[in-house]
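User: Secreted protein. Structure?
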Amino acid sequence: MSVTTIPVVIDGGVRMIRKKSRWFGGALLVMVLTVTGLVASATASQAAAAGWYAESSDDHSAGYGFATWSNTGQYSSFQVCDAGAGDARRAVGYIWWQDGGTIERHAAGGSGTCSTPLNVYVPAGKWVSMEVCERKGANGIDERCGALVHGIAGS
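Assistant: Predicted structure:
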């Protein structure tokens, strides 16, 4: 059996490697990339199922609000935060779901504060929506509302 070699440039110099080594190296690279892809996709799907995020329409250089919902089970934590520069507005977040009610939370303590987390009961498989707006005072009108975030609870 004859062994053939091929030239390969390594660290600026030419080295000879066996074709079998090249095949093994290629196969090993494919296996590493496959495992990396599987881990990354599992992590991404787990992250998607683990939590939701919504924000008001102001950019991050101004005052803006955001809300998080953990979506980790039927009793999942919902919280609203006021962030960015001080703008004399509070963040107001809403969460509502299919065959359920609407919950409204305020981050009224100024920029850098959040509402108290609230465990929200949403049955798995129900459509859920979240929205965050900004408001001047407790009874003001909602302004600068961000995009609605929709999905299915428990997914």
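The helical segments are 19-50. The first strand starts at residue 5 and ends at 10.
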